[in-house]
Amino acid sequence: MRTVNVSLGERSYQIKIGAALLRRLGTECAALGLGRRCVIISDRNVAPRFGAAARHALRQAAFDCELLTVPAGETAKDLKTVRACYDQLAALHLERTSFVLALGGGVVGDLAGFVAATYLRGIPFVQAPTTLLAQVDSSVGGKVGVNLKAGKNLVGAFHQPRLVLCDLETLASLPEREFRSGLAEVIKYGIIHDAALFSRLERDLPALLRREPATLAAVVARCCQIKAEVVGQDETDNALRAILNFGHTVGHALEAVSHYGKYLHGEAIAIGQAAAARLSARRLGLPESQVARIETLLERAGLPTRLSATSRQREKLLSAMKLDKKVSGGEIKFVLVPNIGQARFGQTVPAAMLEQSLAPLAN
Ligand SMILES: NC(=O)c1ccc[n+]([C@@H]2O[C@H](COP(=O)([O-])OP(=O)(O)OC[C@H]3O[C@@H](n4cnc5c(N)ncnc54)[C@H](O)[C@@H]3O)[C@@H](O)[C@H]2O)c1
Ligand SMILES: [Zn+2]
């Protein structure tokens, strides 16, 4: 088992990464000194697979534990589901010392974390992420929240988990497309912060795609370390944390204009990362050879790097980018990279150059 520390003073916690960790859930939670009562929040795909094992492990450690199942998918990440969770927590008489366990992907993590952040003005929660995206990204850092009709993640809080338990064995049942989508975030960490990780991914991608345990463990742990480092320096997203949004300005807009239907998150940010790499070449002199390495690695991971859209759709995409909540003062700000392994946030890009970066075959 590998352990990564997230250093946030009294809100510090550990990320534990390894095989068969769900079995240790009870002893791990007992070591945190949490209250006896807990509720597992999971979704309809994950609960049948891992719900019983998680509940059993908690009960073995003398926790009084119930399983609450919400629908699967992004549409469950809304206030209606939050309310349904509150009602159930109330019916189960959860107290301030009770805790919530988020068992699932990023949707469950964000939703259950938000429920925990707000119920009784905040109760503890533990993350047990079961998608690659959730293990390397969403379960770490304390951003929790839900969507409104007006946009994604518009309601939320910062509420750090007390523990993140990444059981790599849960990834075995993850659909291939979801796994590859998670790889887009993995590749992102190499691009923004760790040239050695990027090279390792170039070398070990086949093993990673086979979900080979040792490779998976090393790579997930390294990604968590990078996220922990960044969050440790900028918990509430005022500056450095912005680098985690590499590829996301275009990616988020793409998800929005396609109504979260056509692309998975990782696919949208893969296109966004390729566009940001091309912009980086023009704005910060990222060598063309490195742009090519980024595009090649994304493509080898089975991810798209080019936008297939009509000019009308392209226009919509540009206006969506201007609506992104990270836009300030009307200027579109990008995270760009002068080299693989280094990132600079807050880089403004002229609209014309942005349009070119999204053109089908131009650069
Ligand atoms: N809080 C953050 O910092 C942060 C960061 C990135 C993304 N997010 C959020 O994360 C969400 C996306 O997360 P996601 O990609 O994990 O999606 P998800 O939670 O919807 O999971 C993807 C699909 O896989 C299923 N699934 C999960 N684990 C499985 C397993 N082990 N075996 C089989 N099926 C499994 C789920 O039921 C779902 O159908 C978005 O809502 C996004 O906004 C949050
Ligand atoms: Zn992302």
Name the bound molecules: nicotinamide-adenine-dinucleotide, zinc ion
Number of helical segments with 4 or more residues: 13
Structural class: alpha/beta
**Which consecutive residue ranges, at least 5 long each, have pLDDT under 50?**
none
The 3D shape can be described as globular
The rounded Rg comes to 20 Å
With strands numbered from the N-terminus, the spatial order across the biggest sheet is 1-2-9-6-5-3-4
Q: Percent helix among the residues? A: 40-55%
The tally of beta strands, per DSSP, is 11
Biggest β-sheet description: 7 strands, mixed
| Overall pLDDT | 94
Protein described:
There is one protein chain. The protein is 47% helix and 19% strand. The protein contains 13 helices and 11 strands. The protein has helices at residues 25-31, 47-60, 79-91, 106-118, 132-138, 176-193, 195-209, 213-233, 248-257, 265-284, 288-300, 311-323, 351-358; strands at residues 2-6, 13-18, 37-43, 64-70, 99-104, 125-129, 143-148, 151-158, 163-167, 333-339, 342-348. Strand 3 (37-43), helix 2 and strand 4 (64-70) form a beta-alpha-beta unit. The longest helix has 21 residues, at 213-233. The protein is globular and about 60 Å long. The N and C termini lie far apart (43 Å). The relative contact order is 0.11. The protein binds nicotinamide-adenine-dinucleotide (NAD) and zinc ion. Nicotinamide-adenine-dinucleotide binds at residues 43, 45-46, 49, 72-74, 77, 104-108, 110, 130-131, 133-134, 137-138, 141, 143, 152-153, 170, 173-174, 178, 265.
